[in-house]
Design brief:
This protein is of the alpha+beta class and 183 residues long. The chain has 6 helices and 4 strands; from the N terminus they run ααααββααββ. The radius of gyration is 18 Å and the shape is globular.
Length: 183
């Protein structure tokens, strides 16, 4: 967006049409980071007002309702079809939460897919915090969230943790998961 244009009042969503492709990509990336921030802020608010167990319960309640809501819309938008691991991986990469990660998928046959997370802003923030909350988030919330995600695609899907935080000092891998469709 040109500097002079940034001072003009916006007219509904017409403002988006004035963005270049590169600006729209950066805006989507910013929205993904903001999505992650809101998730963290509300979790911390519940934790502060009530306690961590209640915050975790509320977090899981929200993800249980939000996950199918998100996936249905992403699949419709990108015309993703199927109940296999390829559809899962495609949709996974479009999620605002997951798009904040640096990761790679490794296909191991038709019914097995390994996810290796190389960079995770949430884990990095938890490690800086230094209170050990990665044990709750990475070992309780994330397994349930990933299970919700894979099972939306296929009720026989399983999200199996292979490597979870806390991680050794200097370790390059944040976490590793294997997704399988049981026959």
């Amino acid at each position: 967006m040109k500097e002079a244009d940034s001072c003009k009042p916006a007219e509904s969503t017409a403002q988006l049409e004035g963005f270049s492709k590169a600006e729209l990509v950066e805006l989507v990336r910013l929205y993904s980071r903001l999505f992650l921030a809101v998730d963290g802020f509300w979790y911390l608010a519940v934790k502060e007002v009530v306690d961590e167990d209640t915050a975790t319960e509320c977090d899981l309640w929200v993800w249980d309702r939000y996950t199918p809501y998100e996936i249905k819309r992403l699949m419709q938008l990108r015309k993703i079809k199927g109940s296999d691991l390829a559809a899962f991986a495609t949709c996974f990469g479009l999620s605002p939460w997951f798009s904040n990660l640096t990761y790679r998928f490794t296909q191991e046959g038709e019914n097995k897919l390994t996810l290796t997370v190389l960079e995770c802003p949430t884990l990095q923030a938890l490690e800086r915090e230094g209170t050990g909350r990665e044990n709750t988030i990475c070992r309780k919330v994330d397994p349930e969230l990933l299970q919700m995600y894979i099972q939306f695609f296929n009720p026989k899907g399983k999200a199996n943790p292979i490597e979870l935080p806390p991680r050794a000092s200097g370790a390059s891998i944040c976490c590793r998961w294997q997704f399988v469709i049981e026959e």
